[in-house]
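Thread: quick sanity check before group meeting

JM: Hey all, I'm pulling together slides for Thursday and realized we never actually wrote out the predicted structure for the chain we discussed last week. Dropping the sequence here so it's in one place. If anyone has concerns about the input, flag it before I start.
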Amino acid sequence: MISIDDIYKIGVFNRPHGVQGELQFTFTDDIFDRVDADYLIVLRDGIPVPFFIEEYRFRSGHSALIRLEGVDSQEEAAAFTNADVYFLRHLAQHDPQELPDSWRYFEGFRVEDEHCGLLGTVEHVDDSTANVLFEVHRGEHVCLIPAHEEFITGVDAEQRILYTSLPEGLVGLNAPAGE
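JM (edit): ok, ran it. Output follows.
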């Protein structure tokens, strides 16, 4: 069984394309094309469900048209409109000397800084601007950390730990008064 901790978000199905069940797919990581994977994952009632890929073709560097097995009409495809699309972390494993192509890969990783110790867990990656940020939850507090190769000193994919060396004072920038 697939667990939420085993997956990370790689895009979203936008809307049906045509009447044969094809879907518009906007992706942030093209891992589905770079590794041998037969399916993508969509949450159904909070449960990760694999959907096998029948075929796909790229439209641009960040979008594709995709057909899923068993989805053969516009009405069936409409059930996937605006659904987040996920991929298995273990299939996306990469050379430990290189960072993955998508910062979202690190969602759910603990962040340990060489100066500050355990910072918390990456709950979300904000990639809505050019400056991508890790939203690291430290109890009730959210710490925003730039997702930048310069600050990452190591990755333990098996233990899901991201090792950092952040500039002095960066962690305290978004701390509530008194901390």
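AS: nice. Residues 4 and 46 are 9 Å apart (CA to CA). The first helix runs from residue 31 to 34.
JM: adding both to the slides.
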